[in-house]
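Supplementary Methods S3. Input chains for the assembly prediction are listed below.
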Amino acid sequence: MTTSDTVKSAVSADLMRQVADAENRHDPYPIYARLREKRVNLLADGSYALGRYADVVGLLHDPRVSSDPHHASNPGSRLLVDNGPFIQRDPPDHDRLRSIATRYFGPPVSPGVVSGQEPEILSFVSDLIDALPASGEADLVDHLAYPLPVSVICGLLGVPKSDEEQFRAWTEDIVRGLDAEQQQGADDLIRQRQQAQVAMFGYVTELVQRHRAQPDGSMLSRLANDHAGQQMTDGELGATSLLLLIAGHETTVNLTANGVLTLLRNPWALDRLRADPDWVIPLVEELLRFEPPVQYLPNRVALADIDVDGTTIPKGASIVLLVAAANRDPDRFAHPDRFDPDRGDIEHVGFGSGIHYCFGAPLARIEAQASLTAFAGRLASPRLAADPPPYRPSPVLRGPLHLRVTYDKRG
Amino acid sequence: MRVVVDLAVCQGYAQCAFLAPDAFRLNGTEGLMYQPNPSDDLCRAVLRAVAACPVQAIATDAAVPAPADAAVPAARAGDAR
Amino acid sequence: MPGRPAAQRIVVVGASLAGLWGAATLRKEGFDGVLTIIGDENDPPYDRPPLTKQVLTGWVAPDHTVLPHLEPLGDTRWLLGTPAAQLDRRAGEVVLADGTRVPYDLVLIATGVRNRPWPASDQAALSGVCGVRTREDAARLIDHLDAGVSRVVVIGAGFTGSEVASACRHRGIDVTVVEQAQAPLTGALGGVIGDVAANLHDANGVDLRCGVTVQALEGSGGTFRAAALSDGTTVDADVAVVALGGVRNTEWLADSGLASGPLGVAADAGCRAVAVNGLVTDDVFVAGDVARFAHPLFDYQFLTLEHWENAAVGAQVAARNMICAPEDRRPHACVPTFWSTQFGVNIKSVGVPSLADQIVVTQGSTEAGSFAAAYGDRDGRIVGAVTFDHGRWIDHYRGLIEQAAALPGPYDADLPDKREPARFPPHPAASYHGPTVVVTGHSPTAMDAVRQPAGRSAP
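Predicted structure tokens for the full assembly:
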């Protein structure tokens, strides 16, 4: 490596630290733009970050890229449990586990499950808006973006809503430590995350036992009592339940909150949505491009030396795929920094791509569409109390902590 | 309405089959079958499926009519926040 | 072309996918002159792949397969129900079978293929003997299936035949599939994958007879009753589906001076038709199943690709090249992609597997019926790939083919690094009795090539 390359790498490493820095949480996109300047960025911990659309999509479809942290030569804190959920597995285990989980969630076996949730989602959203003050101020994270997905995922999985406070705390610790290496106080974050993970794993394991004793129609119940075809072991079932419970609400809350925020920053879009509720369909897709709730995928591993544009990502190296950067790659999207639901070409990677494409994507879409339509339609002249709003700590699962919104009247 | 899916592009993400199960079905784990001419009452669901396709493989000549007052400013806010 | 007046009249011959996509692209690219679309079927352009899948299984009605107009076609003249009979290039006219002459400045040939008929016409005329190329074919076959049948015999285990067999099994109908090769899909994917396909047929209760041919279709009272096979056995059945591939619709071009014949209409990489003498034309373009074009990625070999995507993309490239400035023309160079769904398995292929000598299974398991495999040519370059229920990986292989990369080894650690012969059948001997071309002229600069009528010996 030449001296100038070393200097550039130092810059790259620093850029990823800046992404993780809470100071930049409200707007990491200029930093992503700088990370896109080079196709491959070597980071301080020896991992490689890529942010161009073609490279991110290419590596998401590359069989030499593993999702299993066991393959990393320096897995760091990534090895949390021996028995990872399917997002941390490679084929054939990944395919087997995901297909079993899909059996009770979507097609081909259960095609109507997600779309069948819509009436309940619409009515719950309506209730949430009804519960807001008639005029004045409300936190739309606490009172809209968060409660909807939690309620939906609890109902779908068969998790008692009364346990929400408990698993919310665990989830926060787990999410905060997702990419601890890049953050300040990494050791504490990792320790907290591991404690929360163990506790939450124990919780879902117990829940599964309860479903064995008293089955109902929920997903966990059906998975726990599935004796046809391939089955999950108890460990796999625990890992899967943990994943679905966390991912089932943790990403949608950010999608919705980012949506409310983006609409408030673009009053023309808010007006348009109010006039044309179906416009929410392309709007949510553009949101997934413009402000993706999952900003990057920090845990991929090279299974072989991979050459990208003359740089070799060595076997065993960790790979960070910057989907939020890819979504704003000017080589892929015209005027990428403009929020434009009418752009037509919105082939974003907000939900990833390839075999690990977001499991809950259709549910997240329906929830976000319902929330944003109701927000636009029912709150008159909403204004943001603080812009930027305070953000949640994670740079990976990025979204506002609170969204204090004042409005003239609730409709 | 008339729909066509470019199955050379389709990768079986099944978002269409989740969102519009009356118009799109999976045959096995990733083979897509669909209604090329679904009835008009499925229009909204189909348009949702079209938008949600991760590889933009679904094309249709139906569109939700835009409201008359759908004014869009030439220079939009949000370009650079 | 500089100085040349913009085309005012464009004629598209063929009203299926390629014709419609070509017409839509012409409008999208700004052509506002007179657009005429000629088609031999009465129906407006419809999509054919669903016919052997969701239509045959009964979910979709045959006439619910109309293709969308992705661009408003505006004022377009549709001449449907009468085939084109001649291309008069000197007059600049397409002549229809009823004598109508349609003048053009530019013409797009997209006449596609028709079902290869059962060779004995009296046997083909028996009630119960069907093809599945057109919507009418599908409707007729469904009528037979709906009436209740004891067994269907499918002649030919290519993709169409296999999909028909799959749909019949889906409907609970007994099926016998007769295939001349040693396994299904061998022509397109080779014998290694053919063996996997054979397992699919077996696992789904198809009575698969490979290495034999149907000698005769037997009937009584004008109705099909049984198929006599070359191994001496007889299959009693009520319906015979002839799935022996297609015949390219090029007969109408016989006098056109174009390099056309049973192999298709020759074209350059930019979809411009090639004349008999090897010169590229400037006003005749070709797209879809009938186009035999030089593919830059495969050593400029002339390839005919009977794939949906080749028709869709080729038509767009051709239409654009018809009306753009010559220096803006682009080649139809995309990597061929094909798909089939049968017996609940999604099969995709990229590249041109049939150009390969060797194959290596790279991901998954052929035993489990879920895998990816890559094809290499004799130089060890990747030329194709196939996936069975591994479709999300196909883009990786497409990328390798685009870069003319080396044939990869297995990606899964537990797979053996085993490259084996891909086992494609030898290309069918030139059994075509088409016209030949001879060279005339007495000096090197005064030579020309002309078509020699069939049956006459070279001078």
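The mean pLDDT of chain B is 83. The domain at 3-60 of chain B is CATH 3.30.70.20 (Alpha-Beta Plaits).
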